[in-house]
Amino acid sequence: MRHFDVIIIGGGAAGFFAAINIAEQNPALQICILEKNKEGLQKVKVSGGGRCNVTHAEFIPQELVLNYPRGEKELLGPFHQFMTGDTIEWFEKRGVELKIEEDGRMFPVSDSSQTIINCFLSEAETYGIEVLYSQNVTSLDVEKSIDGEMEGFKVQTKEMDFACDKLLIATGSSVKFWKLLERLGHTVVAPVPSLFTFNIKDKRIADIPGVVALDVEVTVLDSYLRSEGPLLITHWGMSAPSILKLSAFGALELAEKNYQFQIEVNFIKQSFEDCLAMLKDLKQSLAKKTVYKLAQYELPKRLWQQLVLTANINPDTRWADLNKEQLDALASQLTKAVFEVDGKSTFKDEFVTAGGVDLKEVNFKTFESKLFPGLFFAGEVLNIDAVTGGFNFQNAWTGAYLASKAMSS
User: Which residue in 9, 11, 314, 396 has a CA-CA distance of 20 to 30 Å to 128?
Assistant: First the structure.
């Protein structure tokens, strides 16, 4: 059996970040990372289309937490201790400069996730952190003395046995590992997908994949779920931030609906009445122009044309010739178009789930288990998830850093 002061299970973003910070704060500790795959940091590699969306340029904790459907309340305190600015400084100190894009997402200037991976591997080597790959953990136990006091942890893999004084779990959304934690005594909230796109078959969008409406309002009918932002029409339905926000904040409710529900899209973020009034003005001001050819409200031309056709307006109809029914129908398509959602698709390679270790069982000053002293958590193993844009990584950095402070003492 091999003994370490600290064992970290999971060689991903949170695992490496915690290990490096523990080693930096207490170089005397013997630290080991156990990773089940032949190489680690796989999610880092594919994040942001291979560029690694490290964090998001939101520097106010109260605003940052609003991006977490699960974890908003619990992360407020931790974000006051370590958040975006600290993440930027941490990487810059190690020679990795980050840049801010227009939508707030932050990437390494190199635009390559390999920059982040190389940074972690280099730091781990510098501090003598032992990284063991192909170590599939099969059991996890608390070691106790004869009088029943906790003395650390025993970790078994298919290859060998390990023991440690302090243990950090950074296994992400691993159902298998959640079961091991349940066996140990922790409560795990059942996982459901959190970040996904909507499958929609509808003639209005069937022939216009790639079209983007820059600022829409989307509502899930018969629910409280509502979001705003860009909307992308895809080959299978709809995506982009307005949809992804709904999928994250509505993860539990949409799962209960078996991903079959209706959404209402307001393409112009105006009321039906205001839209109708403007269409009547256009009927006068553009009287001799054809409705179909001249897109309005800064909508993409192909989307405008599909909505016009759906309102039973022929391609050669002039504005002056529109009747009341057609004006009403067009206003409806623009402000309250209803689409049937039938299923979901994973958003790129960024599979995120709602679910994980119950947050009531974690001390968020240290990310330590309330049930087992010396057991810590970081990243998506907890019932914390976020919308897309670098927020899930920021949760990983923050949790790993606060855990590292407690574990290095």
Answer: 396
Backbone angles phi, psi at 113, to 5 degrees: -65, -20
For residue 149, the model assigns a pLDDT of: 79
- In 288-343 the beta strands, taken as DSSP E runs, fall at 337-342
Q: Examine the domain organization and report whether 223 and 363 are in the same domain.
A: no
Q: Which helix (H) or strand (E) holds 326?
A: helix 324-335
Same domain membership, residue 35 and residue 168: yes
C-alpha dist (Å) from residue 226 to 67, 71, 214:
14, 19, 16
pTM: 0.90
Whether residues 48 and 149 fall in one domain: yes
Q: Which domain, by its residues, includes 73?
A: 2-192+351-407
Q: Which residues of 71-110 are buried (b: 16+ CB within 10 A; e: fewer)?
A: beebbeebbeebbbebbbebbeeeebebeeeeeebbbbeb
**3-state DSSP assignment of residue 191:** strand
Last-in-domain residue among 326, 346, 366: 346
CA dist 367 and 375 (Å) reads 9
The Cα 90–Cα 52 span in angstroms is 16
What separation in angstroms does the CA of 375 have from each of 135, 232, 360, 384? 19, 43, 15, 18
Contact 196, 346 (CB under 8 A): yes
The reply to whether 186 and 201 lie within a common domain is no
Residue 329 Cα to chain centre, angstroms: 37
Q: What percent of the chain has pLDDT over 70?
A: 99
In this predicted model, what pLDDT tens digit does every residue of 78-111 receive, in sequence order?
Answer: 999 999 999 999 999 999 999 999 999 999 999 9
In terms of domains, do 18 and 89 share one? yes
Q: Is 114 helix (H, G, I), strand (E, B) or coil?
A: helix
Residues 105 and 54 in one domain: yes
* Burial (Cβ within 10 Å: 0-12, 13-18, ≥19) of residue 158: exposed
Nearest CA-CA partner of 385 in 65, 78, 107, 171: 65
Burial 13-30 (b: 16+ CB within 10 A, else e): bbbbbbbbbbbeeeeebb
Pair (74, 183) in one structural domain: yes
Q: Please give the Cα distance from 43 to 244 (Å, whole number).
A: 19
pLDDT tens for 5-19 read 999 999 999 999 999
- The answer to whether the CB of 352 falls within 8 A of the CB of 195 is yes
